[in-house]
Design a protein that fits this description.
By secondary structure, the chain is an all-alpha fold. It is 92% helix and 0% strand. Pfam families: BMFP.
Length: 86
């Protein structure tokens, strides 16, 4: 009798393992479909991606730093020129 019970438990465990695998496959498929739909939706709205935003923000920060450095050089040159003329 215990062999029959063990076999039933083994079959039940295999069935649960298979069901869990199938559920995980369905979950992964649903996630993929959701991400694809979300990407299509965001692309249709012309929303900037985070990576693009970060790249432009970094470029703007570098340009601002360069402008500050150039401004300081111009002010130094103007001061030097005015000292030579005065």
């Amino acid at each position: 009798m215990s062999t029959g019970t063990n076999r039933i438990f083994d079959d039940f465990a295999k069935l649960m393992t298979d069901a869990a695998g199938a559920a995980q496959g369905v979950r992964k498929e649903m996630e993929t479909a959701f991400h694809a739909q979300a990407d299509r939706f965001l692309n249709s709205m012309d929303i900037v991606k985070r990576e693009e935003f970060e790249a432009v923000r970094e470029m703007a920060a570098r340009a601002r730093d360069e402008n500050d450095a150039l401004k300081a050089r111009i002010e130094a040159l103007e001061a030097k020129l005015s000292a030579q003329q005065g």
